[in-house]
Amino acid sequence: MQSIIKLAPRTLVPVLSRCSKHTLPDLPYDYNALEPIISGDIMKLHHQKHHATYVNNLNVAEEKYNEAKANNDLTAMIHLQPAIRFNGGGHLNHSIFWQVLSPKEGGNQPTGALAEQIKKDFGSFDKMLSQLSNASVGVQGSGWGWLGFNRQEQRLQIATCANQDPLQATT
Question: Where is the signal peptide (predicted)?
Fold first, then answer.
C-alpha cells in the first residue's frame, strides 16, 4: 500500500460540548493538500457535506432531547438517543480523522517510539497494516478502523466501529 499521507503527531482534541452548539471544525490543511491520494473534491464533500450534516443533525437532536428532558418526556428522550449517538459519533470520528491526516510526505512508515511500539505489538509495520486493513474491511457497510494506544494494557490496539459509532472510552 503506497501513500504520501502521514499520521500527524497531534494531540486529538475534538470535544463534544454540553453547553453550546457544535460547529464544523476547520481543516488544518487545504482540501487539495492530500492529492493525489485523496482528491480535493472528495475532501470537500466529506467535510462540507457529510461532516457538516452530522454536526447539524447532532445540534437538532440535542435540542429536541433537551426539550424532552425539560418536559420529562422519557419516551422522546429514549427515541432521540440513536440520533445523538449516530450524529455525535459522526462528528467525533470525523474530527479525529481530519487531525490524524497530514499532507507532509514522511516515507510512509513511522519512526522512533511509534515504530518501536508497532514492532513490539505487531511484529512489523506491514503486519500491523495488514491487521488494520483486514479488521477495517471486515466492518459491514460503513464504519471505521482505528489504531490507538490502550493505556491500560500499555500497547497499541486495533479497533473497529460500525456506522458512525464512536470508540468506547476503554478503546
Answer: none
Instruction: Please choose, from the candidates 89, 85, 65, the residue with its C-alpha nearest in 3D space to the C-alpha of residue 146.
Output: 89
Q: Are residues 102 and 123 in the same domain?
A: no
Q: Is 46 annotated as a binding residue?
A: yes
- How much of the chain is helix, strand and coil, in % rounded to 5? 50, 10, 40
94 is in an annotated binding site: yes
- The grid cell for 133 is 486493513
Last residue of a domain, one of 68, 89, 106: 106
Q: Domain span at residue 150?
A: 109-170
Whole-prediction pTM value? Answer: 0.80
Per-residue pLDDT tens for 35-93?
988 999 999 999 999 999 999 999 999 999 999 999 999 999 999 999 999 999 999 99
Vertex 153: Cα angle to 3 and 116 (nearest 5): 40
Residue 70 in any domain: the answer is yes
Terminal Cα-to-Cα distance of the chain (whole angstroms): 26
Number of domains, the chain = 2
Q: Which helix (H) or strand (E) holds 112?
A: helix 112-122
d(CA 125, CA 138): 20
pLDDT at residue 135, rounded to an integer: 94
What is the pLDDT averaged over residues 23-45?
Answer: 94
